[in-house]
Automatic annotation (TrEMBL):
Pfam families: MADF_DNA_bdg (PF10545). Residues 25-123 form the MADF domain. InterPro entries: MADF-dom. This is MADF domain-containing protein. It comes from the Eukaryota. Transmembrane segments: none annotated.
Amino acid sequence: MIEDRNTINEENMNAKFKELEFLSAFIDKYREMRNLWEVKHPQYYLKHVRKSALERLLTFVQTFIPEATMEILLQKIGILRNMYKREHNKIQNSLRSGESADDVYVPRRWYYNKLRFLDDQTEARASLSTLPSTLPSTLPCTLPCTLPSTPAEADEDQAGSSILEEPDVTIWSQVNEFYKYLVY
């Protein structure tokens, strides 16, 4: 019985959140609070300032949806940003595909253009590699620099050699040592 009531409340809250008038006003209010979405904003990384801005935004939401909580607010912001990014990626992919201007993907979400302020805030961050920046200098390398592109070139380079012959064990032992260095 309680679960049914919670489900109904959640459905009502979701329906209210999706209303055109409310969602439009919510996006406008969110856009005004630049420290919540603009990565280069001086207060973006100040947790207490962000928390204060989120509390003001929650107060605004609670005027329309009294049962809204901070958890729900953060979830709704995440959903909006995620949906915007999906639509944005679809547009970018259709542009890259070389389709004609008539065939370029058109966003299906009415609020896509209202969220355009997130464009430069949704780029992927540069990743950091955990691999060593240089290869070990102690590993001697006697592997050939170029491989033959055709069997005929291989025959010219190594007259009389064949795939069926035993491979050079020293080269493979060096490869295995290098692999062990990477794995361990």
